[in-house]
Specification:
heterodimer; A: 370 residues; mainly alpha; ABC transporter involved in vitamin B12 uptake, BtuC; 13 helices; B: 279 residues; alpha/beta; Rossmann fold; 2 domains; globular
Chain lengths: 370, 279
């Protein structure tokens, strides 16, 4: 026995079938195009730089590495550059881009606010502050013992900072087992400003060399990528990518409001805690590996929503692909534009991202008026 | 008729203000219960207690014999669907997607392969199938309300594979609807009740409440001051005490159901229709 539901008339059913079919086709086209773009940029990225290698040659080297090509090719200087320098950099860029974009989409879903972003809620600022403290204070502290700051201290510092600021935020906003999203957003802005001012203070007391490190860090760079760095970052970021399918339904339901999501059967508190923790881990690790890279988390999810709508089941995976594509593309630009030097990648993403974001705002305004 | 939900002696207060006091009630299978009462009487708060959204400071709620507190969210979602007053939406989902949200949290009751049909039937029942492709946020308030109703229907239908005995909660479901759609929605809700579910509706229109309720619950200052068949419990004194309005109170001949019209309206000449109906 079914509920007291009306049967659907044939024309109604046909119209609905047409609608879902056209949506499915749109999603398929958008997803395919995005994936194709991402792979193309990746191939270009392996060849681009001060030491240019043709894409065809890159493909040959990759095939040889996979065992279907002349093995002696792998001993060439080009292979060395592609496999040991550019490949880890590419993968790090893709990983960080995917993590930032998903984190942005998660935050926007969680806060039900299209402007939310890990940068906005102070996660990035916390990570940045800890990194700055490591650069400026860690150096002096250790110099007292006659030691040099180990390179690995910086990523760990940033990671720790991101985690601590997120936990602080979470504790401030949680009362009696319920997390207030509005409080979290406001507290995030306040904590972000505090972290920013402390970072500024550190910059003020730093010496010239530290200041240069700081500046580079705060603008982001994939320059230090290596296989060993990648092997540290990947295990921290991957849980976020793996958890995405489990979060999508909950985030969709949250679009109606928290009470409604609970009525729909979503374990709201668990979803919130999980999403916040995963974002802290992924953003902390990303900032640790590549510095603060802005605008990926806000631009990419918006762009994907324009393409396929706001359904998180599709939005989250496509945001990951889009984020990877944007960062890999921005890295190509960063490497090519001032050859033989390279620009901090954060400058490129902000340069692309900020105007795009403004355009988005203007467009929204016009839609709201009409 | 067995009670699907039993609530005993519920209390709820916020910062020293009692919003719900000594509320006891039961929702029976196959019946439509309607809560009426003035603004701030505690109707929505009582509904939130019964749906599990709020936890009572005192008292107990049993859903199908087991305590409501501590039930896993997905299981609860199979047993009851809620249409709340809030109908905002954060991102531009389509009407189809919003209705489909009813299927997102029901866990094991997830209808594999049948979801599209369920959503279509729910949209048709709520009268919004033709809007399926539209953006929810571009709809009028009344249309949005009907989409939310469709969403609740989806959830109820999916949940039936796990929970036989279900409840549908509707908080002012017809607030933005025109008369035709008001009746259509209430008819659909009552049809769900006649098929074995319990339906609880918060309503402001007393005449519609009287027409559709098997059981009427009148709330005043946090208490349920009367509950029972509308023809039995409603009288002049009760209404004057609760709503502070002088009402012309008569009974419609065939059913004996009360029919109410504000006195003030009568004085300005609207009374002739009432006298015709009441005579």
């Amino acid at each position: 026995m079914t509920l007291a539901m009306k049967p659907v008339t044939a024309p109604g059913a046909a119209a609905l079938a047409r609608l879902t079919a056209s949506r499915r086709q749109r999603n398929l086209v958008a997803g395919g195009a995005l994936l194709g773009l991402c792979l193309l940029l990746m191939l270009l990225s392996l060849g681009a730089g001060a030491f240019a290698i043709a894409p065809g040659r890159v493909a040959e080297i990759l095939l040889a590495r996979l065992g279907s090509g002349p093995a002696e090719l792998l001993d060439s200087r080009e292979a060395l550059v592609v496999l040991n320098i550019r490949m880890p950099r590419l993968l790090l860029g893709a990983l960080v881009g995917a993590a930032l974009a998903i984190s942005g989409a998660l935050m926007q879903g969680l806060f039900r606010n299209p402007l939310a972003d890990p940068g906005l809620v102070g996660v990035s600022a916390g990570a940045g502050l800890a990194a700055a403290a490591t650069i400026v204070l860690g150096d002096r502290l250790l110099a007292g013992f006659g030691m040099k700051l180990p390179f690995a201290a910086l990523p760990f510092g940033a990671f720790f900072g991101g985690l601590v600021s997120t936990l602080a935020l979470y504790l401030i906003a949680t009362r009696e087992g319920r997390t207030s999203v509005a409080t979290m957003l406001l507290a995030g802005v306040a904590l972000g400003a505090l972290a920013g001012s402390l970072t500024g203070l550190l910059a003020y007391v730093s010496d010239d060399r530290q200041l240069r490190d700081l500046t580079f860090w705060s603008m982001g760079s994939l320059g230090g990528a290596s296989w060993s760095k990648l092997s540290v970052v990947a295990p921290i970021v991957l849980p976020l990518l793996i958890a995405v399918p489990f979060l999508a339904r909950g985030l969709n339901a949250l679009m109606l409001g928290e009470a409604e999501a609970y009525h729909l059967g979503i374990p709201v508190q668990r979803i919130k805690a999980l999403a916040v923790l995963l974002v802290a881990l992924a953003v902390g690790a990303s900032v640790a590996a590549a510095g603060v890279i802005g605008f990926v988390g806000i631009v990419v999810p918006h762009l994907i929503r324009l393409l396929i709508g706001p359904d998180h089941r599709l939005l989250l995976p496509l945001a990951a692909i889009g984020g990877a594509a944007l960062l890999v593309g921005a890295d190509i630009v960063a490497r090519l534009i001032v050859i033989p030097a390279e620009l901090p990648i954060g400058i490129v993403t902000a340069f692309i991202g900020a105007p795009f974001f403004l355009w988005l705002l203007l467009r929204r305004g016009r839609i709201a008026e009409s | 008729m067995a009670a699907i939900l039993e609530a005993r002696d519920l209390h709820f207060s916020v910062r020293g203000t009692d919003l719900v006091r000594n509320a006891s009630l039961q929702l029976d299978a196959g019946t439509t219960s309607i809560i009426v009462g003035p603004n701030g009487a505690g109707k929505s708060t009582l509904l939130k207690l019964l749906t599990g959204e709020l936890t009572p400071a005192q008292g107990e709620i049993r859903l199908d014999g087991t305590p409501l507190a501590g039930a896993p969210a997905w299981k609860l979602a199979c047993q009851r669907a809620v249409m709340a007053q809030n109908q905002r939406l954060a991102f531009p989902f389509s009407v189809y997607e919003v209705a489909r949200l009813g299927l997102e949290g029901v866990g094991r009751a997830q209808p594999r392969g049948r979801s599209e049909q369920i959503v279509a039937e729910a949209l048709e029942t709520a009268g919004v199938l033709g809007l399926a492709g539209r953006q929810y946020q571009t709809l009028s308030g009344g249309e949005q309300q009907r989409v939310q109703f469709a969403r609740a229907l989806c959830q109820l239908e999916a949940g039936r594979s796990v929970a036989e005995r279900q409840i549908l909660f509707l908080d002012e479901p017809i607030a933005s609807l025109d008369l035709c759609h008001q009746l259509a929605l209430l008819d659909a809700a009552r049809a769900i009740a006649t098929q074995g579910a319990a339906v609880l509706i918060v309503l402001h229109d007393l005449n519609l409440a009287v027409t559709y309720a098997d059981k009427l619950l009148v709330m005043h200052e946090g208490r349920i001051v009367a509950q029972g068949a509308p023809a039995v419990i409603l009288d002049d004194a009760l209404l004057r005490g609760v709503f502070r309005v002088d009402l012309a109170f008569s009974r419609l001949p065939p059913t004996g159901l009360p029919f109410l019209l504000p006195q003030q309206h009568l004085r300005t000449g609207g009374g002739s229709a009432l006298h015709a109906a009441g005579s």
